[in-house]
Design a protein that fits this description.
Layout lengths: L3 H7 L1 E2 L2 E2 L5 E4 L7 H13 L12 H11 L4 H12 L4 E5 L4 E5 L3
Helix pairs in contact: 2-4, 3-4
Length: about 110
Amino acid sequence: MQTIFDVLKHVSINHQEVESPQVVVTDEAGKPNGLLTDLLHDLINNALLFVTLADLASADELIARLETHTPLPADVLAEYQKILSEPCYGLNFAPQKGKIELIVHR
């Protein structure tokens, strides 16, 4: 099963890592999950400035690198670990919205 980490690592737009405005977390019906989307945007905007996902093998390695090289507190890193480990059951490309929807069960 793919996780959100796997999707972030392997999906690119114009050969670049995805940016936060380009992704949203939804359920199977396409209903946005605001809490997970906000957490994902925070991760992309803040934490991924310090690493290149292509260089990392796992979410655990990403969290370890952030723990070592950033001043992020343990509770923030724990939340990032949760979103990165969330199973992703599919992708929906919504060009009319300019979004990639990461589908999770909720």
